[in-house]
Specification:
It is a single chain. The protein has 386 residues and is an alpha/beta fold. It has 19 helices and eight strands. It has one domain: TIM Barrel (Alpha-Beta Barrel). The protein has an eight-stranded parallel β-sheet with strand order 1-2-3-4-5-6-7-8. Helix 2 runs antiparallel to helix 19, helix 6 packs parallel to helix 8 and helix 18 packs antiparallel against helix 19. The relative contact order is 0.14. Bound molecules: adenine and zinc ion. Adenine binds next to loops. The site of zinc ion has 6 residues, from strand 1.
Length: 386
């Protein structure tokens, strides 16, 4: 998966110069900022900056004045979030401003433009159709707007993006089934969407909402006509704050190909062994985990331990507008807090590429882009340690 990592660690132990350390740390930070990145765990609704929420609320004549006074007030609401539950309340309220195709277009374009600044070359973007269904928006309206922005961003910004609508687990399986029927119809009417809408996810509040609740609907998705929906990938949030057993359920019952978060896995040795042996991707979101109280501080985050166990972990941003950082900031924060070195960083970035749902030939290109970007750093550091 990430060969070379152990070798690098041994070399570093023999180096004993403090100026080398500070120089290499500055170089590492520069590298992280400029390296090509892959984003696999980001929610469109979690990218809505307060300014955009306000603009869309005004455009759609939605009165949110009883909820916040102005943009600063809304920003302080974002800042005061402390747990998943309080986060989801603000998240749903703010997401309710997305009503028209143009709103979905603008939100997606705003995110992809911001991601471009972080040198994201490829993103798999989540969105929550049931959330917008509650305000009367059809799947077609959401998907048309998001897909148009994805196309324009590809041409104008040279950034690639695919989509993964998610079911919200605090709602019933019947609600997920009805959403799936609407998605299926969309595929029937828009066959080209198959290339861009590449899977279905599961998110929202884990508490008392195990993956088993959605066994039936994911079975139906796996058995849906390929000629209509193409290859639908399945991913699930599990083991964010829910028990490690939810990760096993997501794998066994839903046949999830990736686990979003998964940080609770270390409490189960057998599961860790399976995740390692089967190279199951775990898309970890360090700043989100601290913001939502999964870990008290970033120093206590278990990302480094997961990596040292040989797990296929990668770093992502989850809800960047809310949790205090986009993808680059997540990388920089873990370097600082957990003492990640350059081979850890390259390994995390490589894992993200290996975990994408794209053709192997596209992964080959992304791996080469990363190697090219990393080469000067790795060469310079190995020369310094001679
Ligand atoms: N939806 C958006 N962000 C989420 C998170 N961190 N956990 C579960 N559901 C979410
Ligand atoms: Zn998430």
């Amino acid at each position: 998966m990430c060969r070379g990592r152990q070798q690098r660690q041994q070399k570093q132990k023999t180096a004993n110069y403090s100026d080398v350390n500070s120089q290499s740390s500055a170089m590492l930070k520069r590298f992280v900022t400029s390296m090509p990145k892959v984003e696999l765990h980001v929610h469109l609704e979690g990218t809505l900056e307060p300014e955009l929420v306000l603009t869309l609320a005004e455009r759609n004549n939605i009165d949110l004045s009883s909820y916040f006074k102005d943009v600063n007030d809304l920003r302080s609401k974002y800042e005061s979030i402390k747990c998943l539950n309080s986060f989801l309340q603000v998240y749903h309220r703010c997401a309710s401003v997305l009503r028209t195709e143009r709103d979905f277009y603008d939100a997606t374009m705003a995110y992809l433009s911001r991601a471009k600044k972080d040198n994201v070359v490829y993103a798999e973007l989540f969105f929550d159709p049931q959330c917008h269904k509650q305000t009367g928006v059809s799947f077609e309206t959401m998907a048309d707007g998001i897909l148009a922005a994805v196309d324009d961003a590809n041409h104008q910004l040279d950034i690639k993006c695919k989509l993964i609508p998610c079911f919200m687990r605090h709602l019933s399986e019947a609600s997920a089934m009805s959403m799936w029927s609407e998605i299926f119809k969309y595929f029937q009417q828009h066959p080209k969407a198959r290339d861009k809408i590449i899977g279905i996810g599961l998110d929202s509040d884990e508490q008392d909402n195990p993956p088993s609740k959605f066994h039936g609907v994911f079975w139906k998705i796996r058995h849906a006509s390929k000629s209509v929906v193409g290859d639908m990938h399945i991913v699930a949030h599990a083991g964010e704050e829910g028990p490690s057993n939810y990760i096993s359920q997501a794998l066994n019952l839903l046949r999830s190909e990736r686990i979003d978060h998964g940080v609770q896995c270390l409490s189960d040795d057998k599961l860790v062994q399976r995740l390692r042996d089967e190279h199951i991707p775990l898309t970890v979101c360090p700043l989100s985990n601290v913001k939502l109280g999964v870990f008290d501080t970033l120093k206590q985050h278990n990302l480094k331990r997961m990596l040292d166990f040989g797990l296929n972990v990668s770093i992502h941003s989850d809800n960047p507008a809310y949790v205090g950082g986009y993808i680059t900031q997540n990388y920089l924060a873990v370097i600082e807090a957990l003492g990640m070195n350059e081979s850890d960083v390259v390994c995390l970035a490589m894992n993200a590429i290996n975990s994408t749902f794209v053709l192997e030939s596209e992964r080959v290109v992304m791996r080469q882009q990363l190697r090219d970007a990393a080469r000067p750093l790795l060469l310079m550091l190995s020369a310094e340690y001679e």
